[in-house]
Amino acid sequence: MQRLLTIMMLGAALVLSGCASKVDYGDAQGRETVNTDFGSTDLQMIAAKMVDDMLVFPPIVQLTQSRRPVVFVDSIKNKTTEHVDTESITDTIQSKLLNSGKFRFVDMTKVESVRQQLDYQSESGLVDPNTAAQMGRQIGAEFMMYGNFSSIVKREGSTKDVYYKFTLKLMNIQTGIIEWANEKEIRKTKTKSLFGL
Amino acid sequence: MDWIRKGCLALACMAMLSGCASSSLFVSYPSQAAKWKAELSHVPATAPSVPTESQGGQSSAHNDETVEQADASPKPAGLAPAPSRVSPVISKLEAATGGADGVLYLQELGRVSQLQGQREASRNAFAGAVAAYDAEDNSARIQVSSLAATGTAMLTNDNARPYIAPDYERIFTRAYQALNYWAAGDTTGTAVELRAAALEQRVAANKREKEIAKAAEDAEENNVDVSQFDGYFEGLDAVAGGVKSSFQNAWTFYLSALFWEAHREYNDALVDYKKALEIHPDSTLLKEDVERVSNAMKGKPVDGGMVAVIYEQSFVQARAEFSLPIPTVHGIFSVAFPTYALEDKPRPDSLRVLDTAMQPLAETEVMADVGALAAKDLKERMPGMLVRQTLRATAKYNLQKEANDNYGAFGAFATQIYNLVSEQADRRSWLTLPAYAQATRFTLPQGEHTLLLSTPQGDATLTVPVVNRGLTVIHVAAVPGRLITRVLPVQEGPL
To answer: Is ipTM > 0.85 here?
Structure first.
C-alpha cells in the first residue's frame, strides 16, 4: 500500500512538474535558433563583424591614431520583410566603437531635447549664467555612418531560406568620400520536421 | 450501449487533442459573422468620435493625428475607466481568437477594429494572425493534433479541422496591416508590410502548381472521380468568373505601387504597376501608371500631387451549402458541400470622385474581385474536400449499418439523426473582406481640396491636403448602411 502511494505520488509529481512553466536565465550571447526571423545572434554577429573590421582597416587605424573623429549615425534603411529595429543594431555598433576609444559620436535623435535644455539654461533665468552651456559650441561631425539592411526570403515546400545582407558605410561629410564600407551576410535555412504535436 | 459510450469517449478524446475550439462545428460560420458585420453597420458609440469617419455627412480630415488626440483626451473626473468601450460582440470575437480557428477570428477582429478606427487593436490582431501563419508554415508536416482533428472531422464534419487561412486572406492581412502602419505615419513599417504582401503573393504562386497536382493525385489514389461532381459546382465557376488564380491581387500591388512611387522608389513602383497590369491587361488606368512611372525613371516626374482613392465595396459573400441527400438501404445520408451561389454575389459599383463644381475627377476600377478569389480558392481545395467527404460518408454509412444491426430501433434512429445533423459544409472564410477592392487616382495642384465621393451607398465630402509630388490616399469602405472614410497621412520624399 505504501509502495503504491509512493508510486502514485511520484507519478503525480512527474505529471505536475511537466505542467509547471519555468523561468530561467540564459546566456545573452548564446546562439538563438528559435526560427529564421531576425534575432539576437544576427544582431551580435553583424555588430561584431562591422566593428572588428572597421577598427583594423588600415586607413581608419591611421586616421584614429592621434585623434578621435566625431561621427553621427544616420538611420539604417530597413528593406527586409520584417519589422527590425535597425536602431538597436547601430546602437550596439556605436557603443562598441565608443568603447574602443577610437571614435566619438554625436546623437542626432536627441537634438530637440538638447535644444530645449539649452533654451532653458539660457532663457529661463533660473540657471547661473556662469555654468550655463552656451549655444553654438557643439562639435560638428566629421563622418556619417549609414547603411542598408535587406533580405531575400524564399519559401517552398518544407524549406524556408532567409538571406540577410547588412551594409554599413562611413562617409566623410566634407569631401563626400566613403572612407570605409563593409557588409555582413547571414543565411538561415529552416526545414520542417516530419512529425510534431 | 457500451459501443456508443466508447464512441463518445473516442470522439471527446479526439476533440480534446484537436483543440476542439472549432466554434463552427455545429453553428454555421456565416451566422456567427453576421453579428460583427452588423456591428460595423452602425457608428460605434464606443469608438472615439473622430472627424475622419463620416456617414454621408460633412467631414474634414488632415491626418490621423486627430484620432490620437481624441483618444488621449482626459476623461471626465469621477467616471470609471470605461470597460464598456468594448462591445459584447467584439469581446466575443476576442474570446474566439484563442481557439483552433483563432486565425480566422483574428483576421475578422483586425478588420473590424480597423474600420472602427481602433488602430492599436487592429494592429495587434493582424500581428497575431501573421504569427499564426508563421506557426502554420513552420509546423511539422505530420501533426498529431491535425491528424486528430481530421479524425474528428471524419465523424462530424470538416469544420472540426483547424482553419487554415488561404493565400488571398494572408495577402489582405498584410495589406491591411500596411494600412495600419500607414495611418500611424510609420513609413518603414508600411514598407515592411507591403514587401511582405508581395512575398506572400510570390510564395503562393510557387506552391500553387504543386499543390493542385498533388490534390488531384490524391483524388485519383482514393478512386474519387472528381468530375462526377462538376455539375454541382457550376455556381462556383460562375462566381470565380474571370480570375486566373485564387491569390493574384492587383489591389495590394496597386497600393504598394502607389506607396513606392510617392517615395520615389520608381523601380519597385514600376514592378508592382506591371504586375497589376498583368492581372488586368485591359486597364487604361494601369497603362497610364506604367507610362508615368517609366517617365519618372527617366527624370520626367509629373507636377502636382497624387490623390488615390482605395474603395472597398460591401462584404464578400459567404459560402453557401449544397446538400445532397443520398437514400440507401440503411437510411438517408446527406452529403454537404460548401459552394458559392452566383445570386449571392453583389454587383460591382464604382465610387466617383467629384470636385466642388461637381465636375467628375475619377471613377474607381475593380482591382480585386474578392468573391471570385474565394470561389477560385474553394475550387482548388475541392479535390481534397471530396476525398474527405467520400471517406466520411463511408464512415457514417458503416456507423449507421452497425447501429441498424445491433442497437435496435432507437439506436438506429439516433444514429440517423446524428448523421443528418452532423453533416455540415465547411463555410468558414474571412467574411468582413470587401466584395470588391477598387482603386483610382488623379492629380491635383498643391493645397487643400474639397472632394465629393459619390457611391450608391451614400456620399461623403472630404477636405484633403495635396502636396506636390506627394501622395494622399483616401480609404473608403462601404458597409451596408454606412460609408467609412479616412484620409491617410501624406507620403512624400525618399524613404
So the answer is: no
